[in-house]
Amino acid sequence: TRYTNELEPWQWYCIGGIIVVTGTYGDLVESLFKRSIAIKDSGTSIPGHGGFLDRFDGLLLAVPFIITFLKLFA
Prior knowledge:
Layout: H1 9-36, H2 52-73
């Protein structure tokens, strides 16, 4: 793809850091949201995994930051 062939090692390290920080933060925010409304799982769309938000909470927050990074530095 356009981005994977053009990225320098420092850019990959930054993307990794973005995923770690925003993924963890996304998971914490989603957990706080669920606790505030007193529910355990965010849905039943993915049986055994707690629902869509429980599986993709970190990814949903990380993607906009990764796209922004790629637009600015790639």
